[in-house]
Each structure stands twice: as structure tokens, then as C-alpha cells.
Write a structure and sequence with these properties.
Layout: H1 2-7, H2 13-31, H3 34-44, H4 50-54, H5 59-68, H6 78-86, H7 90-100, H8 133-157
Helix pairs in contact: 2-5, 2-7, 6-7
Length: 165
């Protein structure tokens, strides 16, 4: 069938990405019992309005609504995975969902959702401006001396001379 889809004029990479996104969701939906589907609705009720979720009969319809409201997308199905864990279907998360999200899958990535590639960094970067090692050490010693003198003054006020042997 995939071969037939490639032959259809107008079938785009975006169409292919959508099919690859929906395929595991349909498989998951078909694998859930009525009770499990009802449990999925309960777990999604805080993000899908009650009136809207009532009309959704299959889990795949719920998943597509989650996509529509921006809770999941082609690169991030973590919410679906968490719901599957909550309803006790770790097997579907492990065997269906995770393999569909593998980075080496043959589906072309959506360029709009790809992170920017950072500029290559030099192997030996220039040191950042700031105090030299000796200057930093001297500053640290001043700060330490100040703290000890404050502690000594406070100790004298409290009648404790904890700095003397």
C-alpha cells in the first residue's frame, strides 16, 4: 500500500509524515478496550473540554484532538505515552509508540520542527575576559578575611570568642 501511495500524484512528504504519525495512534486505539478508552478520556478531560470529549468515541479521535490543541505533535507523543502508562498499557507504549518515535525511522522530518544546528565551536576557545587567577585568589582572600572579622565581632558581642584557641 505504501508503494501505491508513493505513485499517487500530489502525495507529499507532509502526507507521509501525517500517515506515519497516525498509524501507531490507530493501532493503539484499536488495541484498547472500551473501559481503557473511557480511562483515556478521563485522563485527557483536563485538556479537552467536557462537551468536546464526550463526542469522541475512539482513542484515536482523542489523540487527534490532542494534536489539534497542541498537546502532542509528530515529534512529541510523551503525553500519549504517559496516559498509556496510567491506564496500565505499558506494552503499547513500549511496542507501538516508542518504535514509531525512533530517530532513524524513514519518515522525513518536518523542517519547521527541527532544532537549529549550533555554530561549530573552536577546539580551544579564547579565555573569557575577567580577573586573572591571582586577582581572583586575592579577592577571595579579602572576602574570607572580611567574613572572619565579622564572625569575630559577632562572637565578641555574644560573649563567645570562638576564634581564639
Amino acid at each position: 500500500m505504501a508503494g501505491l501511495a508513493r505513485e499517487i500524484e500530489g502525495f507529499t512528504d507532509e502526507d507521509r509524515r501525517h500517515f506515519e504519525f497516525v498509524r501507531p495512534l490507530i493501532h493503539i486505539s484499536d488495541s484498547l478496550t472500551k473501559k481503557e478508552t473511557d480511562d483515556v478520556k478521563i485522563y485527557c478531560a483536563h485538556v479537552i473540554p467536557k462537551g468536546m470529549i464526550k463526542g469522541l468515541k475512539r482513542a484515536v479521535d482523542i489523540f487527534l484532538k490532542l494534536k489539534e490543541i497542541g498537546k502532542i505533535n509528530q515529534e512529541n507523543l510523551d503525553f500519549v505515552e504517559e496516559v498509556l502508562e496510567m491506564i496500565g498499557r505499558r506494552d503499547l507504549a513500549r511496542d507501538v509508540l516508542r518504535p514509531a518515535q525512533q530517530p532513524d525511522r524513514a519518515v522525513p522530518e518536518n523542517p519547521e520542527l527541527q532544532p537549529e544546528i549550533p555554530e561549530p565551536q573552536p577546539e580551544n576557545p579564547e579565555p573569557l575576559p575577567g580577573p586573572s587567577h591571582d586577582e581572583a585568589r586575592a579577592e577571595g582572600e579579602k572576602l574570607l578575611t572580611w567574613h572572619f572579622s565579622r564572625a569575630a565581632i559577632l562572637g565578641q558581642r555574644l560573649g563567645n570568642n570562638f576564634l581564639s584557641p
